[in-house]
Amino acid sequence: MTARARRGLAAGAAALLCIGLAPAAAHAHATLEGTSPARGTDLKTAPRAVTFRFDEPVEGNFGAVRVFDARGNRVDDNQVKHPGGRGALVSVGLRPGLKDGTYTATYRVISADSHPVSGGVVFSIGDPGNGPARTVSDLLSGSSAGPVTELAFGIARGVDYLAIALMLGGLAFLLLSWRPALMGAAGAGGGWPEASEAFAARATRMLALAVVLGIAAGAAGIVLQGATAGGTTFWSALDPGVVREVIGTRFGRISTLRVVDWALLGAVLVAGAGARTIPVLRPAAVGAAGVAPAPFPRAGVLAALAVPAAFLLVSPALAGHATTQHPVAALLPLDVLHVAAMSVWIGGLVALLFVLPSATRLLDPPERSRLLAAVLLRFSPIALVCVIALAVTGTGQGLIDMGWSLSPLTSTPFGRAVLVKLVLLIVLVGVAAVNRQRVVPALKRLAGGGEPPGAAGRLLRRTLRSEVALVSYAPPVATGSGPVTKNARMGPIQLQTTVDPARVGANQMHVYLFDAKSGAAYTKTKELTVQAALPGKGIGKLNVTMHQAGPGHYVADAFQLVPGGDWQVTVTDRVSDFDQYTATVKVPVR
């Protein structure tokens, strides 16, 4: 392989990695809806457990819920469970005989999109004493897996999608484009058996690469999920106990089944090698001219491939938001169709760019033109249908995520990303039209005249590379890293501010006020003022409209933080005509 070809292969792989991430469209992380005991509650007797309630099912293993006394010592029994089997509830029991005082309960759980969210609440039993010595942020500090683990997890997910595209798209290309094109274009000219053998060998390597990538990405994903959930490194998460914990979660079960599924596909491909999974040509019988196809794979081989391939198709939806976020009846089929269209299109592009040339270079110029025309005539309409399906399913998912409102298309990063992708898909339809209207007729004309592909072949390579270049652009989506919680002291008040998802665009802010001594909700507020500023960009203090959601609890819905940077949130609490307290916290917005 030449250096130029290697560079092209690397660029194509990077592009496919980016587009492979696209089906995991932006969804909001799990949001805490309530707790028991409630935040700031002063209880007469100790509860048996602490329970957090979220707006969607979450994974709660790995010591996800912890309870600390005022000195920072753990007082829970480390038995995390889902009460009543309800995935949206996660609870941990408390040790018997808890003394009077203030307690802090923290959580670090995994959303359906495999991202962690964390936070905590403070409550007291009997005499609250002097309050906790460590804040929620202090207790949660050090529980983050870090940027390296997050990057590695993102790469693993991208490789997983790439493997699915290579396998499903490769099989679709073989069945729908290559085999009928080979049967229709092959003639008596020399080189056809050798060309079909070369294609079969290269295609087999592509499918084998998909199996290897799929197994590696799945296994790495299980370990990285453990590292992300537990806030540890990859190497620490290699512990067998952590791996068992991950496998016990919904994400872990689906990932484990996917690894087994990849191994099964690899076994079927190896076992079916003698049955010629990929069709080739043989010289015709003695006394006859031309070539004849080898027997097509038996139905049993095809069925053995179809069943595990079908699981690969639905597994991303089973492991993500499509089965936990309403409406499931719409999101599940949209997600499956999106992955199917992406796989058939991307897998076909890989086959055209890196597998088909192994066959065409062994043919004489007229046969080369005929084969290219036959393959493109079949793949071009399939690709067009896939692009349209991507546009329709992506738009449908986006509208559901945005609450069926069009205003977020221009006011939020996710909406703008949807618009950019729609524009790119329109351009891709134009590129496909060039192949359909110019390249295919030119190749057919050249084949009829016994001429080599020439300029038409060069135009084909340029259009295919254009498609790869266009799909390599992956606009940023509002996936977010979860809510950011900051704590500060304002005179007699303990302030806790949570900004969710702390991403550029619309955010939600929760402001909690506690009596610094008792830990109870602070209720002496006369007027609360919140302002946001970004000094690094010259943005002055912007007023944030708050409404009271409960004792000592204030909420701002859908306020804008644009652009990204280290925003300063200033909270001023006027408690009388003469006294007020102010604190400023820094909130990183990315």
Question: Overview of this structure, please?
Answer:
The protein has 13 helices and 19 strands. It is α+β, with helices and mostly antiparallel strands and 590 residues long. The protein is 47% helix and 22% strand. 45% of the residues are buried.
Provide keyphrases for this structure:
590 residues; alpha+beta; five-stranded antiparallel β-sheet; 13 helices; 22% strand; elongated; disordered N terminus
List the strand order in the largest sheet.
11-12-13-17-16
Sequence stretches where pLDDT stays below 50 over 5 or more residues: 1-28, 285-289, 472-481
Main structural class:
alpha+beta
Total helical segments: 13
| SS strand fraction | 15-25%
Mean pLDDT: 77
- Any idea what the shape is? elongated
Number of strands: 19
Largest sheet: 5 strands, antiparallel
What proportion of the residues is helical, as a percent range? Answer: 40-55%
Q: Tell me the span between the first and last alpha carbons.
A: 41 Å
- Computed Rg: 29 Å
